[in-house]
Amino acid sequence: MTEATKITTLDNGPFLVAGSVLLTDAEGNQFHAERETIALCRCGASYG
């Protein structure tokens, strides 16, 4: 059985995402995360 992706929120910090992740940007481009754990900002100040 494949282990589930886990998302952890940090107080005043990013979402930590552990496990298999496929990211899609605003233009529809897809990227497979190459690390076991990635951090996603949730402050709203990031612009692409």
Describe the structure.
Helices cover 0% and strands 38% of the residues. The mean pLDDT is 87. It has one domain (6-40). The strands form two sheets. A three-stranded antiparallel beta sheet has the order 1-2-5, with no helix packed on it. The protein starts with 5 loop residues before the first strand and ends in an 8-residue tail after the last strand. The chain is built from no helices and five strands. The protein is mostly beta strands and 48 residues long. The radius of gyration is 12 Å and the shape is flat. The protein has strands spanning 6-9, 15-18, 22-24, 30-32, 37-40. InterPro entries: FeS-contain_CDGSH-typ, MitoNEET_CISD. Residues 12-46 form the Iron-binding zinc finger CDGSH type domain. This is CDGSH iron-sulfur domain-containing protein. Keywords: 2Fe-2S, Iron, Iron-sulfur, Metal-binding.
**Main sheet attributes: strand count, strand direction, barrel closure:** 3 strands, antiparallel
Give the helix level as a range of percent. Answer: under 10%
Q: What is the CA–CA distance across the termini?
A: 36 Å
Percent of residues in beta strands?
Answer: 35-45%
The largest sheet has its strands arranged as 1-2-5
Backbone CA Rg? 12 Å
Number of strands: 5
Number of helices: 0
Number of domains: 1
Helix vs. strand class:
mainly beta
Order of helices and strands: EEEEE
How would you sum up the global shape?
A: flat
| Mean pLDDT over all positions | 87
Catalogue the unreliable spans: none
Protein name: CDGSH iron-sulfur domain-containing protein
Domain Iron-binding zinc finger CDGSH type: 12-46
Organism: Floridaenema evergladense BLCC-F167
Keywords: 2Fe-2S, Iron, Iron-sulfur, Metal-binding
